[in-house]
Write a structure and sequence with these properties.
It comes from Haliscomenobacter hydrossis (strain ATCC 27775 / DSM 1100 / LMG 10767 / O). This protein is of the alpha+beta class. It has a domain at 4-244: ATPase, nucleotide binding domain (Nucleotidyltransferase, domain 5), CATH 3.30.420. 35% of the residues lie in helices and 23% in strands. The chain contains 17 helices and 23 strands. It has helices at residues 48-65, 108-116, 120-127, 136-146, 150-155, 164-172, 182-185, 200-206, 228-231, 243-250, 308-317, 326-332, 371-397, 414-424, 436-448, 454-458, 473-490, and strands spanning 4-10, 14-20, 26-33, 45-46, 73-80, 86-89, 99-100, 159-162, 179-181, 191-192, 197-198, 215-217, 220-225, 236-242, 259-263, 267-274, 285-292, 295-304, 341-343, 361-363, 403-407, 427-431, 463-467. The strands form seven sheets. A seven-stranded mixed sheet has the order 17-18-16-15-21-22-23, sandwiched between helices. A six-stranded mixed sheet has the order 3-2-1-5-14-13, with helices on both faces. A hairpin with a 5-residue loop joins strand 2 and strand 3 (26-33). Helix 10 crosses helix 15 and helix 12 crosses helix 13. The radius of gyration is 22 Å and the shape is globular. The chain binds adenosine-5'-diphosphate and SN-glycerol-3-phosphate (G3P). Residues 11-14, 264-265, 308-309, 311-312, 324-325, 327-328, 408-410, 412-413 line the site of adenosine-5'-diphosphate.
């Protein structure tokens, strides 16, 4: 009987379940979007139970619709939106608050306090991160400080914290396993990536009891079995990785120097740096890529908060397109933006600027500006943000990137990919499978379950299409200068001091 790996890809806007066959091809997919809550400007929440219910529903559906029995699943790989924070009661399994999403800015003031206390250098050296509301640590503190009775319960050892991977494993195993992997732990602001342990100093500073924290494990191992009643039989869980690190793995970037850029809700460029922890001088993060075969691999990361989400804003906020792919059709009608720039700093700016107080803006409007110009400028903003990050990465790595491998939903947009190659002056390569996040999680699970070996994975990457730069250096420099001017003007917008 045909065997598969089931990847559970819990993203910011949807939960997906994907079956991969032994060739690494997608055999079937199911996906459900779930509710985004914006209780106040700058706040973003998810309901952890809705995340669990949609994730379970798509996993069941993908098996049932394709007549696949649990015994045909060699293992489950989990990959997830990172940093998003869930705190739940150990005894009842009920979340004490909504999940605070990675994009949420409510803890900016806590971050400012950390900076004022002089913790910035320590945090950068020990966690590889910058002090920003993006990461989980300040979100846990906020929940303990603001949810009635939470701190007392936490101090009594009754509450558990987890990023989405931990929450899903907890639910999948019927509350038996509280675990995360190195890649997810390295996004919490509480994990010491040098010593590979939770950092007691930061736990003290944030007031987070160690009893809340999951055990940190490699990204590929058998963590436990799913409860038999969920799928009709137990299935081993064999892989866990944050979605961006999973995409790096799924893109076959196994060697130091290999890099990928994922265009999903946000846009995340990661470069494998092997066993070397490179400290960025250019506004990037040092993060754990994965733990595998007794070793931890590191990566440099440029995190852009709003990418595909800006296209969703055109669709849901402005309602000027019906579907995200329509953005290409309208952008094609305008050969250029005619000087219009959209800076989608809806959640502040991430790498390389790290400005929690920046906000979105549109520049260069004239009476001749049309819907097509606006849509094109929004698409181009994904490429400009990527250029900002690539520039930083080349500075840190000390070498120019020869080619950029891309993936994620928005990389299906050919106009965007061509503009990306043009504005970078670097070729962009899109693989046949752009579901590389799920593929990476499947690979990690497949390795743990003996479904694949590393040698099998080396040959699985196949090119769909390459986009080569076709813009003069002069034009590129002119356009990019305009972008930099626009970004500059969005910075510090929400900061009452400025
Ligand atoms: N053809 C397209 N052109 C531009 N953006 C697109 C296109 N298709 C999908 N997107 C955007 O890509 C994102 C979905 O990508 P996906 O990789 O599924 O993201 P996530 O895992 O963050 O939910 C959405 O934000 C959507 O707006
Ligand atoms: O949901 P995605 O795929 O945009 O990924 C979100 C990131 O993991 C946030 O760090």
């Amino acid at each position: 009987m045909q065997q598969y790996i089931l990847a559970l890809d819990q993203g910011t806007t949807s939960s997906r379940a994907i079956l991969f066959d032994h060739d690494g091809n997608v055999a079937a997919v199911r996906q459900q979007e779930f509710t985004q809550f914006y209780p106040q400007p700058g706040w973003v929440e998810h309901n952890p139970l809705e995340i669990w219910n949609t994730q379970l529903a798509v996993a069941r559906e993908v098996l049932q619709a394709n007549g696949v029995k649990p015994s045909q699943i060699a293992g489950i790989g989990i990959t997830n939106q990172r940093e998003t924070t869930v705190v739940w009661d150990k005894n009842t399994g009920q979340p004490v608050f909504n999940a605070i999403v990675w994009q949420d800015r409510r803890t900016a003031a806590i971050c400012d306090e950390l900076k004022a206390q002089g913790e910035e250098a320590y945090i950068k050296a020990q966690t590889g991160l910058v002090v920003d509301a993006y990461f989980s640590g300040t979100k846990v503190k906020w929940i303990l400080d603001n949810v009635e009775g939470a701190r007392e319960k936490a101090n009594r050892g009754e509450l558990l914290f987890g990023t989405i991977d931990s929450w899903l494993v907890w639910k999948l195993t019927g509350g038996k396993v509280h675990i995360t992997d190195y890649s997810n732990a390295s996004r919490t602001l509480m994990y010491n990536i040098q010593k590979l342990e939770w950092d007691q100093h930061l736990l003290d500073v944030l007031g987070v009891p160690a009893s809340m924290l999951p055990q940190v494990s490699p990204s590929s191992q058998i963590y436990g079995q799913t409860s038999a009643e969920l799928f009709g039989a137990e299935i081993p869980i064999g892989g866990i990785a944050g979605d961006q690190q999973a995409a790096l793995f799924g893109q076959g970037c196994f060697q130091p120097g290999a890099a990928k850029n994922t265009y999903g809700t946000g846009c995340f460029m990661l470069m494998n740096t092997g066993k070397e922890r490179i400290t960025s001088n250019a506004g990037l993060l040092t993060t754990i890529a994965w733990g595998l075969n007794g070793e931890v691999h590191y990566a440099l990361e440029g995190s852009v908060f709003i990418a595909g989400a800006a296209i969703q804003w055109l669709r849901d906020g402005l309602k000027i397109i019906d579907e995200s792919p329509d953005s290409e059709f309208f952008a094609m009608k305008a050969p250029s933006t005619e000087g219009v720039y959209v800076v989608p700093a809806f959640a502040g700016l991430g790498a390389p600027y790290w400005d929690m107080y920046a906000r979105g803006a549109i520049f260069g409007l004239t009476r001749g500006t049309s819907k097509s110009h606006l849509i094109r400028a929004t698409l181009e903003s994904l490429a400009y943000q990527t250029k900002d990050v690539l520039g930083a990465m080349e500075k840190d790595a000390g070498t120019p990137l020869a080619v950029l491998r891309v993936d994620g939903g928005a990389c299906a947009n050919n106009l965007l990919m061509q503009f990306q190659a043009d504005i970078l002056g670097v070729s962009v390569e899109r693989p046949k499978i752009i579901e590389t996040t799920a593929l990476g999680a499947a690979y990690l699970a497949g390795l743990a379950c003996g479904f694949w070996t590393m040698a099998d994975l080396q040959s699985k990457w196949h090119l769909d299409r390459a986009f080569h730069p076709n813009m003069s250096a002069e034009e590129r420099a002119k356009l990019y200068k305009g972008w930099q001017k626009a970004v500059e003007r969005t910075m510090g917008w929400e900061d009452s001091e400025k």
